[in-house]
Design goal:
Elements (H helix, E strand, L loop, with lengths): L13 H21 L5 H20 L2 H19 L5 H37 L5
Helix pairs in contact: 1-2, 2-3
Amino acid sequence: MTQQNIEIVANKADRPKLIAAVILAVAGAIGFHLLSAQPMALRLLSPLVGVLLAVGLVWSTDTGKRIVAFGEDSIAEAKRVVWPTRKESTQMTGIVFGFVLIMAIYLFVVDKSLEWLVYDVLMGIKF
């Protein structure tokens, strides 16, 4: 049996911040419903402010910083990807459509052959 080292990166001081962020987001949604008699602009401001405050609070935690770092790394990785040219994309799309067409014809022939074998030959039923 191999022993696996699992690294848990959690800051206990961040837990109250994360809970407060969830409470802020929920409070914004509840505020939207409680302000039903107010103009729509004011009602929409409530969840917007709640979510923005929650995002700001999460951003200040270690978890939020790791999420931002992951996003930055993802963007940098996407910039290094060698994307296919228009010609390559068109060719690959044509190959896929051709393969799908060939498979559709093949499955049609197999289906009709099995239908003929089962119904006409074995059971003697004519449609």
